[in-house]
Give the backbone structure.
Amino acid sequence: MADPVVVVATFFPREGMHDSVHAVIKAAQTDVYQEPGCLLYSLHEAPDRFVMIEKWASLEDLQVHGEAKALGKLVKALEPLLTQDVEIIELQPAKGAADHPAATVKGADA
């Protein structure tokens, strides 16, 4: 079984574009979340940025997402609203991290 992949994508809105960036990302969230292998597509914010925490069932699913229509549409819509390119960090589980109780979702098996 493939290891899941976690991605952190950070978006930096231009001054006065915070609400517009939020609206564009929210509009894309449902389509992306329905892509095969998408386990989490959760948006968070700070005054100067939005951070999307993504979890994909496999690297292959993430690669398919990278070529998907929904992502292309999102990137194109965001381009004029951001101060810089989206910062994307792909993370792998730390060695032995999955063995710790904190690596599970509380109440998931309830």
